[in-house]
Amino acid sequence: MKKVRILIVGAGDRGATYARWVVGQPQRAQVVGIAEPVEARRTRLAEELGVPAENLFGDWREAVARERFADAAVVATLDDGHVEPALALAGQGYHLLLEKPMAPNEADCERIVAGVKRAGVLLAVGHVLLYTPFTRRLRALVDAGTIGDLVSLDRLEPVGWWHYAHSYVRGNWRSERSSSFLLLTKACHDLDWIRHVMGERCESVASFGSLRHFRKENKPAEAAGAVHCLECRFEPRCP
Q1: pLDDT of 97-135, one tens digit each?
Q2: Model's pTM, two decimal places?
Q3: Residues of the domain holding 237
Q4: Which of 40, 52, 88, 236 qualifies as a FRET site for 230, CA 20 to 30 Å off?
């Protein structure tokens, strides 16, 4: 069987995870290129996977400038950086695995879908929970009527305080100006999972919440003037 050649666009946590999964399927696929602006991430993953230097790029645009050298691309850039590489790669004939969420807004999602249809390539969004053994088993039980009629469903997304503080207060997803709102960024796969298990399209979605603890008025006096934890005198006692 011919191996599927894959280009990784964005070698952060998600992109590297997909790449390492590919390595575990040596008869089926191989990573042949990496586009990642952070040199340390790019070179570290390339050395781990054995990707040749000529197929390493500091910007996805450099990869697109080349004649297509892979069959598919994994787009795992930050949320607000999905649209342009997805459209450009699709236009070159790359099939796409797009990390969730597709884009921070509906209009950009529609742009991606239109571009993929225009190019005639495959598009999958990384809602990986749908393919886990527990989801498949649960869906089979629901479809078989084993638990009776499904009239309501509760799902909990346990975002740990450390994850929330690291990623959604101080990290890449701290602001909607450069990312998505929390429900979309963190829980879009939960919404997709609910839709999948229920077997019906969602008619409406509501979200309620507020930023309560991580506010300037709650900043300890000893933390005054500090921008980062390493500069903060309160850090050794910070819960």
Answers
A1: 999 999 999 999 999 999 999 999 999 999 999 999 999
A2: 0.88
A3: 212-239
A4: 40
